[in-house]
Amino acid sequence: MAVPKVNEKLLEDLQVMGFPHARATRSLYFSGNSSLEDAITWMVDHENDTDIDEIPLVDVDIDIDTSPSFPITEEMRRKAVALIANNLRDQEKNKKKYEEKIMEREREKERIQAGKKLLEAKRIAEENERKRNLALRKAEKEEEQRARDNILKKLEQDKLNRRSILGLPLESQPNVRSSPAIVVKQEKISKPVYTTTKIEHLRECLRSLKREHKGENTRIRRAFETLLVYVGNVVKNPKEEKYRKIRLSNPLFHDRVGSLNGGVEFLELCGFERADGFLHLPSEKIDMELLSSAGFVLNSAMTNPFFGLLIALYITIVCFQKLTMLMCFAYKEIIQT
Question: Cα Rg for the chain, rounded, in angstroms?
Fold first, then answer.
């Protein structure tokens, strides 16, 4: 296979007009090397061929007589310029389409990556929320169980007190009428000793605050949140003096905490002391365990819808028991007379 021979003069004229060597050679070969106009017409008709810029190969060489130079007319020049312009436009259009395709592919990759990151962040947030809810439910159950245990203990102690006052034998002793001396001794032994921890005082303080300001839920929650901030700042920065000192005349403090019955008392239960118009927590009196418990009690008061209900039930039961005991006393006096 060999490159076909074409009219050198026509080939040179086509290259001067701006056509590539391979395209000019191909057009001259397939147009029969007849004229410059036929070669340009062939290129216009075959501009969309995929192999237009490939040099044709032939089996044998063809002798081509060199013909005299063919004059280039204005029409031929316009066709050549239009053909070159079309080719350039097509090349630019194809290049632009390719670049847009690449950019679209990159944007799609970015969207996919952003979607994956969003899903992962959502999964982590849901997992953290689930863990917080589990911890909160566990804490609420523990608090409710402690409250039930305390109520049961107090009810049992009240029961023992009533039996001693009425002169009845204790459940652990045989049902035998005791002498007055023994009754007095039993009464001294079974007398209840009410021991309330500081944490119970904190709970009762918050319950009292909710009872005193019943119906003002927004104000109560704001007070609890403010108290939680004060306690949390001391826990996080126990050595910072500014977190352990609160001005009582501060308008913000007075509006959120100081004006509520039980607000200042709660801080005093946490260790704060009144001094020269301030509430101050001395560094030597910081009890981290107590402050942490205070934070837990505040959080429970804000999130537990049953906070304070059990103690109200207990108070009702105690009042009913005292009324029953008074009726027993009256009935005993009537029988004796």
Answer: 50
